[in-house]
Amino acid sequence: MSLTDLTIAAARDALRAGEVTAAELTEAHLTAIEGAGALNAFVHHTPDVAREQARAADARIKAGDAPDMCGIPIGVKDLFCTKGVASQAGSRILEGFLPEYESTITEQLFTSGAVMLGKLNMDEFAMGSSNETSVYGNAVNPWKAGNSDANLTPGGSSGGSAAAVAARLCLGALGTDTGGSIRQPAAFTGITGIKPTYGRCSRWGVVAFASSLDQAGPMTRTVRDSAIMLRAMSGHDPRDSTSADLPVPDFEAMLTGDIRGKVIGIPREYRMDGMPAEIEALWQQGTDMLRDAGAEIRDISLPHTKYALPTYYVIAPAEASSNLARYDGVRFGHRASLSQGDGITEMYEKTRAEGFGDEVQRRVMVGTYVLSAGFYDAYYNRARRVRTLIKRDFETVFADGIDAILTPATPSSAFELGAMADADPIQMYLNDVFTVTVNLAGLPGIAVPTGQDAKGLPMGLQLIGRPWEEGALMDVAQCLEARAGFVAQPSKWW
Ligand code: GLN
User: Fold this and answer.
1) Ligand 1: distance of its center to the CA of 279 in Å?
2) What is the position in ligand 1's atom list of the atom closest to the CA of 181?
3) Does position 249 have pLDDT exceeding 90, yes or no?
4) Global pTM?
5) Which of 271, 270, 232 lies closest to 250 in space, CA to CA?
6) Which protein residue's CA is at the shortest distance from atom 10 of ligand 1?
7) Which residues lie across from 217 on neighbouring strands?
8) What integer pLDDT is reported at residue 471 of this predicted model?
């Protein structure tokens, strides 16, 4: 087996046993990245940082001081500020921005010895579901459909992270999820990704999209790996007032493999019109797998689900329009060249028109509109009220004894790049139909690869858990993973 095929858990054990060094693991991945330019997953390469971190990790391992992530090569979504390393959020407006500081999460990972291979492609400011809004051009899914040679989307917005993990360019990657950006790309590429409870991980130093929805999370090839990586990322941060002051459990130790007696809810509102039969069948198979593992299956209702997408597409743009006001050509990155006589207003206008892509501009306009004096109550306040109702739906079923909820992760498998180019933007937003509720309610949600469609493409299911119970959620996810036995890999064409 090649070093790039290891899981994080296996690599950790091999490192500690002295069977491999962090330097060797790192070189194997740097070589894999060099050969994978066609995937456009890594957009800023940091081999020098990686080699230096690997050397330090090897010294720590030798000294017997090796936390779980010590010596593990990872990729970092371009949304995280990394000190002295380009951090552009996939946008032209942050061209040339080299942060003076390290995000809390990358700092925690580095403190535990992780090795950064580089920064990963993503939709601009994490707005998108196909990685096509990126200033770097889209990342490409390593999977292909049947005999077709067409390039597929890896999903978005964490498309580069998903492609890199699936193509074995890194052992794990950082993603972020505001409405599904970890779970949808994970499902499209046959990997696992968890969005933790809102507040589990610090948002400090993560470029803000919609602050009340954004959460970072790990994207890995197994549930165990997600448990390991999430632990290293979690914890209270005095610099983020929304990060929770709660102890971080050893998530990996909570993977018991025994879910007998757990109650799994199947929400009837997630059975959507026009859902492909294959997704419907997969959901049924997943239900059967959890029943076979000893769980009790119960039909449940989450009645406000149908309002989730419109609610999200009011709240997220509203917060984005406010967060993105800071990109003014003065403080960060790109500034448009000005003509004689231009004043500060022209500088703002030209910089923002040049620096932001179409989708970002659309969101800023929608957000500004729903927050404007005349429409604030009709849109923004109403959306906030509906958000409370959506959250209450979940609270009710959890109070009734439901431990986790099983749903499809996405309404389809990966689609062709360019397929949505002329479509109404709402078509793209429909990708998030199963995932946005989880962000609106602040809950943990995980995507688990569960099967393949007729074209051989991966399909995933989503499990939604109680707040702060990521460990119990991953325990159920690992049972699903084990029973689904998803071992397929993309065949290498890049
Ligand atoms: N696709 C969703 C959007 O465009 C979700 C993005 C995300 O989770 N960052 O808003």
Assistant:
1) 21
2) 8
3) yes
4) 0.98
5) 232
6) 127
7) 175
8) 98
